[in-house]
Design a protein that fits this description.
2 domains; alpha/beta; Glutaredoxin; 7 strands; 6 helices
Amino acid sequence: MKQFSPTSQRRRVGARLLPLALLIVVPLAFLSKGCTSTLPNRNPVGESFPIVSGESLEKEKLEIPSAFAGEPAILLVGYLQGTQFDIDRWIMGLLQADVSARIVEIPTLPGLATSLASGWIDDGMRSGIPKEDWGAVVTLYGDSASPVAKLTGTESGRRARVIVLDPSGEIVWFDDEGYSATKAMAVAELVAGM
């Protein structure tokens, strides 16, 4: 009977684990570095919001902006997980200002790697967001995320992009400089006049 040395056994185990390790490490490398380059920020006021498709955390498919047709909507677009702090401040401020518009959080994740991990990412968001708010979070991945990233730019990615749409889907107000109570009140006044 042939005996195997511990060294040869380690090589065999290593040879079997290498493909598995590559399957895990390569996608994680893409996710950590991102697959898209930074786009210069721009102010899209006066433009129509691009037609894109997303899915709420309730797993409802929505086409934006037609899902909000006939009513004003406030879209809080975030490109990085770190944007959540700014988005949360905007939501609190807009609710305190008694804004009479639909407020929707739009996590926007361009790139192939995020599309491949969409189920995992959505599950992570569901675990951190109360179930009653899942309908107000619509995630855009890959090809649906790219037009939005081009619309607003992705520099200073930790700041939310706040987009106010009129009932026809035209962008009538935009901010990417961070929350302030004065701006929340301005949005409330603008929406009240629509």
